[in-house]
Amino acid sequence: MTEANLPEKLARHLGTRVREMVADLRDLVVCESPSLEKSSADRCCALLATKWRKRGANVERLAQKHRGDHLRVIWRPAGASTRGQLMVLGHYDTVYASGTLGKMPFRVKSGKAYGPGTFDMKGGLVQALFALEVLQALKVPLRKRIVFVWNSDEEIGSDSSRKLIETEARRSDAVFVLEPSLGPRGLLKTARKGVGEAELIVHGRASHAGLAPEEGINAVHEIAKQIARIEKWNDLRRGISVNADVIEGGTRSNVIAEKARAVLDLRALRISDMRSIEKRLRSLRPVHRGAKLEIRGGFNRAPLEHKVTAALFAQAKSLAAKMGLMLGEATAGGGSDGNLTGALGVPTLDGLGAVGDGAHSTHEHLVIQAMPQRAALLAALLATA
């Protein structure tokens, strides 16, 4: 089998496995795995581990105290000489609480599979399973060992898995992220905004609003001035957005507000802009005499910059063309664990997961006919990267 016709053969083989892919998807979806419910998440982790062991992979379950356990799955063909490592990255946790299946059951209708986590991102997990399976079935020689990392807390910030992700990424020559694709055309995500949250707290001084207003320092007035200042930092053309989306302050209408706070959503497409925003936040000074400012937080995921993804996308586009598919790219406003690996300078390609729509909603679904195509694309990337 030549490298030229490999993608087509992978796709043809996987086209006969659709029924099995849907069955595995059903298994994972009906095993609910909320980020914040460890016992439920652990049941899904155990199911996922079983499915990988059936493929002959080396599975390591990494126990966590408060979150679901993480999985590190290693595939190195017996007797094969491999140099280097490729990483496949994804999460099995979802935003849906246990019991969601009661009102949002797994179902197949009109070529789509519906249910909590189908699109984001249990469909991607199934595609990875079958990508490995087809490589085994066709005895495709691999140049590098493959490490699959499945974490349990991506939807809540990846605090317990970040070290694991970054450690494996540093060992890897490339990272393939199985987050859902973008839009009906299944666009890959070749850039993502960096994401963060900051809290701006203003400390003023309380006073009677009628008897002694001059003795007070109004924290609400001060934070209003600061928000107006921060609003001017927005530059949508550059991909910079800073939004005050939660604001609180004061106690009663006749008391000068002693304290106020605003929670800011921070996003930027460039690492340089991310650093600039954080510097400007910490350079804020009070407008009203006597007011004090306190800044907490900042960016927790750096941007996934296009330069880190460009070469891998070109390779993926070429492989897809050999399967008769037109592959496009897009920029995503939200972050993923691919931001973590890209920030390390490791070539990273995101959005390789399911094609569908409705993430985090009651109509979440994936397109079934796209599953074998995406699995074949991932398999081709793993064989040629």
Count of DSSP H/I helices = 10
Mean pLDDT: 97
Query: Approximately what portion of the residues adopt beta-strand conformation?
Result: 15-25%
Task: Please trace the helix and strand order, writing H or E for each element.
Answer: HHHEEEEEHEHEEEHEEHEHEHEEEH
Q: Which stretches are poorly predicted, pLDDT < 50 over at least 5 residues?
A: none
Distance between the termini: 17 Å
Helical amount: 25-40%
Shape verdict: elongated
Instruction: Tell how many strands the DSSP assignment holds.
Output: 16
Give me the side-by-side strand order of the main sheet: 1-2-6-3-7-14
CA-atom Rg in angstroms: 24 Å
Structural class: alpha/beta
Characterize the largest beta sheet: strand count, sense, and whether it forms a barrel: 6 strands, mixed
Describe the overall structure:
The protein has 385 residues and is of the alpha/beta class. Helices cover 34% and strands 23% of the residues. The protein contains ten helices and 16 strands. It has helices at 6-14, 18-30, 38-54, 118-137, 162-170, 219-231, 271-282, 306-322, 337-343, 370-384; strands at 58-62, 70-75, 85-91, 107-109, 112-114, 145-151, 174-177, 188-192, 194-203, 241-249, 259-268, 292-301, 329-332, 348-349, 356-357, 365-367. Strands 1-2-6-3-7-14 form a six-stranded mixed β-sheet, sandwiched between helices. A four-stranded antiparallel β-sheet has the order 4-5-16-15. A hairpin with a 2-residue loop joins strand 4 (107-109) and strand 5 (112-114). Helix 1 packs antiparallel against helix 10 (370-384), helix 2 crosses helix 4 and helix 8 packs across helix 10 (370-384). The model has no long low-confidence stretch (mean pLDDT 97).
